[in-house]
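HUMAN: Quick job: go over this next protein and say how the chain folds.
***
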Amino acid sequence: MTSPDNTSPITPAGLAALKARYDHLLGTERPEIVEIVSWAAGNGDRSENGDYLYGRKKMREIDRELSYLAKVMKHAKVVDPRQQPDKSRVFFGATVTIADEDDEERTVTIVGDKEQDASDNRIGWSSPIARALRGAEVGDLRTVRLPQGVKEWEVVSISYPGDDAG
């Protein structure tokens, strides 16, 4: 049974990145591989033809990724953080600075699960930290259950794209 809201939030930039990847695979990489496979197929015995075997494997990988990207884009719901009416609270697209008990600060941006990137401090909407921060205001304390244990964070600042102050 499908849930009534079978969508995943994503930022406009996140959807654009998915579309760009899809277009690149479909318009550039896949045609190149098809050309290699066609050429290799004309070279005779396919069972020992490395170009042919590698090309077929690569084409299956590309087709799988294209299928995955199409599914993700179909279920994506674009949420523009700049349109957030209440910018005093943490919602989708917020960039939040939090501090732990030792006053160690960390700044994260809450994005769609398919566009999260820990190395760029972008955390997924469904992550434990993002779930704990939802609806928080500056000064609020939030407890997060992480694999390494419970941690308490204080919300230090909240900003959204297009904010004059942020």
Q: What stands out?
A: Residues 81-159 form a domain with the Chitinase A; domain 3 fold (CATH 3.10.50.30). DSSP finds three helices and seven strands in the chain. The beta strands are 8-10, 76-78, 95-99, 105-111, 122-124, 141-146, 149-159. The first strand starts at residue 8 and ends at 10.
